[in-house]
Specification:
Chains A, B: It holds the Pfam family Aldedh. Two copies of one chain form a homodimer. Chain A has 522 residues and is an alpha/beta fold. Chain A contains 14 helices and 20 strands.
């Protein structure tokens, strides 16, 4: 066991800053996504390693939560700098393991470091602590409200974002920003990438003089490692991006604890996009297919359902989609399993009564590079048959034709919760636009007018979340600064002498935190 | 069926502003808490009435959520004024039904109206909408973040606060403030009080020109009415104050929905209070018993566990508690059932190995007015035997003697989540004080130094919440302005023309809402 600055180590398990061989009998393999060839073997973490990582996180929490927001801002900046400094190696291993294009991975790394730096800005400003002070009055005591971190967080990396939603992704960044140690369950689709990234986090933690338990990264299967992590008494919350079955399994495990903990799972979404007549142009058809097939359609925000008016203009639009689709070529998918799941979901949807194929493109070179596909049905089917709401994770989409605005609204009302909802229309095009947008508000966390849902800005203003089954908690987001809210809880100090108060609520305000003082005192 | 301004109607079920006879076969009775005599019969709501109330709430939601915060502020002010104007009648019926003293009920009504007015102030100011705007840049779209109401809320009234935690209590006030219609399941310990109060809410709703579905109040048993409400598709969230078994039953019902919804349940707490040597005075003994026996000990924040040092000063303190206890007289409890549960819990705790009785007072006149009781054990037992953590809801307490600071910390570490934790010490008394307070932070939502936990200020700065099992969600409070957060979720509008934006995020800012504009744009 040794601390390393070259995290390409073949010791795959990072327990509290130390690389170790996995102690379990089971072994996972990293795979070249394009050729299907095995790259390396990773022995899974054993129960003792999981337990030590969790206990170390609990110990580290006491130190980490006592740091100032500014100290944690420096930690995040340092992680970002280390990742940026190792771009070539990180992007190379991620490209091999995921088949994602180099340029996309360079962009994703920039997004990952930008995300860490955004949380650093949030910490510097520190209004996220929500400090409120009511000084004592004749009838009420001195009360000081602020938010504290909840404790160690288990993070489950996502297959489709090996950087931005994985070891150093948004869940990790927001949890560390809050003051919560992080144990990552590395996604098995990019184990080498995860190890390299977590090595930089561990190095930054060590350089900051923080305990190694601030970050661990474990390898293992969801049913074993995932369940063990979620049920470990030291874990206080869970961040997950992945399938609905995976997310709900973690919720069930968390709810069966003696002390249930929250699981913030971002799971599945159709991302309905609605075209009004003015949008039925060839340019829209091309932009739709660009969004549908971006990254082989492997985005949570892929526009899986497109609502198009009936009638000749709509027919021409759909014909143009079919024509353009012919020249679209399938791209290598992240894993063979994801390719299989897409084939299964698209043949299930394609086989439903009232669903027909609009067209398909050409398969790509790799075994998983299935031809992009688009199906068609009626809005009435969307309203009547929830099997048409099945997510096809990959470059496949469903177009639903609506007869009129009532038909459109009925279909939208029938939809379950979504991450996004998109409308293409002229502002004055229809009196139904405003009611439609207010209806979509109830269905989704983000409303887009005139754009496409893929491409999620990491911002103070972003909501990447939405009602079930898009997520397990519509009150939060997993992207943007508000993601920190998941890992904080409020605590009030009453009648407490200055010397005994935590810094955030001391009268002296050593952290320079924005505060709401005596705002609603009557 | 008729709308009434004299809500002493014997028609007990308020469906969307109309009083109706209950349609179920089962009948509940209101009871004189002191004599045990039956006062009135209330037929329970039938399935059709529950369904109509929920559908009416869903319809009303569309209107209510479109109102401005200022309009809802006026509604809350009007409800407060109507309740204050009917003080004599409300307090009289509540006194008969609950046995609580007139002065206490007058205070509780003032608290209830003050609470409504506090939310009115919050709405006038409107920062709770958390509006954030990032204008478009060369690389990012225009993004506008705000919070919207979640939908109709089911509120379960509490036995021990017939006014402040019931039909027009904190859950109702915060849900209406958010823009969510409210269906109250009236607590069967004060059905007449609930009907009178809900009549005023319905009148204020009608006077404001809002749909009757904005407020319904139903009578029935938890297992029937409660489950039906929580599982109704129209209900989006639940507020509950009561027993752990009741709260967990609602969580199970909510989790078994096709679309699980959040249940914000405030359930049980020992409210540990820790005395350091300087606090071992006769005045502390008297103040402890005052807090323990206030309202017959029927407060969620009653100091159920008192940690007292071993040694002669601690012995003298406990002897003084025993001496003072002799002259304390039992008070009428809210219901016979609560009296029975107290008897059962206190004999369970009193019968544990290593637990002895310190003393007891005198029973009061009513059948339920059990003698106040205090038991004693060791801090080591608290650390070792979780049966000593059993809540005794009523005027019963457990004193745990600690041998030293390590012994104290071990006992505190073993405690489950709490609503409050209290410390009595001189600021410079011990170096363990600061670590102890930071440990208590992890256990409780409110830390009190030198006071007592009973008496919860309704304030912008209050946290009435805490880790499980004190509540089902430690990230929220059920008292104070932050209670509104339970019923809001964030939504972002991207690239949306001004004419299609909701008022809160329009550039023009018609509601005059405080906004964070371009704060973290890099």
């Amino acid at each position: 066991m040794s601390r390393t600055t070259t995290p390409t180590t073949r010791q795959p398990v990072l327990v509290a800053g130390q690389w170790e061989d996995g102690a379990a009998d089971e072994t996972l393999h990293s795979v070249d996504a394009t050729s299907g060839e095995r790259l390396a073997s990773y022995a899974c973490a054993g129960p003792d390693q999981i337990d030590r990582a969790a206990r170390a996180a609990a110990d580290a929490f006491e130190t980490l939560r006592a740091t100032s927001p500014q100290q944690r801002a420096e930690l995040l900046e340092d992680i970002a700098a280390r990742l940026a400094g190792d771009e070539e190696a990180i992007v190379t291993v991620a490209h091999t393991e995921t088949g994602l294009p180099i340029a996309r991975l360079q962009g994703e790394l920039a997004r990952t470091t930008g995300q860490l730096r955004l949380f650093s800005s949030l910490l510097d400003e520190a209004s996220y602590l929500d400090v409120r002070i009511d000084h004592a009055t004749d009838t009420t005591p001195d009360l000081r409200f602020h938010r504290i971190p909840v404790g160690p967080v288990a993070v489950f990396g996502a297959s489709n974002f090996p950087l931005a939603f994985s070891n150093a992704g948004g869940d990790t960044a927001s949890a560390l920003a809050a003051g919560c140690p992080v144990i990552v369950k590395a996604h098995q689709a990019h184990l080498g990438t995860g190890a390299r990234v977590s090595g930089h986090i561990a190095d930054a933690v060590a350089a900051a003089g923080l305990p190694g338990g601030t970050h661990s990264a474990l390898v293992g299967r969801g049913r074993v490692l995932g369940t063990a992590l979620v049920q470990h008494p030291a874990i206080a919350a869970v961040g997950f991006t992945g399938s609905r079955s995976g997310g709900l399994a973690l919720v069930a495990a968390a709810q069966s604890r003696p002390d249930p903990i929250p699981v913030f799972a971002e799971m599945s979404s159709l991302n309905p996009a609605i075209l009004f007549p003015s949008a039925l142009t060839d340019a829209t058809a091309a932009a739709y297919l660009d969004s549908l097939t971006l990254g082989a359609g492997q985005f949570c925000t892929k526009p899986g359902l497109l609502l198009v008016p009936e009638g000749p203009d709509g027919d021409r639009f759909v014909a143009e989609v079919a024509r353009l689709l012919e020249s679209r070529v399938g791209q290598t998918m992240l894993t063979a399993g994801i390719g299989d799941a897409l084939a299964e979901a698209s043949s299930a949807v394609g086989g439903l009564d009232g669903v027909t194929e609009v067209g398909r493109g050409t398969p790509g070179g790799a075994a998983t590079a299935a031809a992009p596909q688009v199906f068609s049905t009626s809005a009435a089917r969307i309203a009547a048959d929830e099997r048409t709401h099945t997510e096809m994770f990959g470059a496949a989409g469903l177009i639903a034709r609506y007869a009129g605005e009532e038909d459109l609204l009925a279909a939208v009302r029938a939809l379950p919760g979504q991450l996004t909802a998109t409308v293409h229309a002229e502002t004055e095009e229809s009196p139904v636009l405003v009611p439609l947008l207010r209806l979509l508000e109830r269905k989704a966390g983000r409303i887009i007018v005139g754009g496409w849902p893929t491409g999620v800005a990491v911002a103070h203003t972003m909501v990447h979340g939405g009602p079930f089954p898009a997520t397990t908690d519509a009150r939060v987001t997993s992207v943007g600064t508000a993601a920190i809210d998941r890992f904080l809880r409020p605590v009030t100090y009453q009648s407490t002498p200055e010397a005994l108060l935590p810094p955030a609520v001391q009268e002296e305000n050593p952290w320079g935190t924005p505060r709401a003082i005596d705002v609603f005192s009557r």
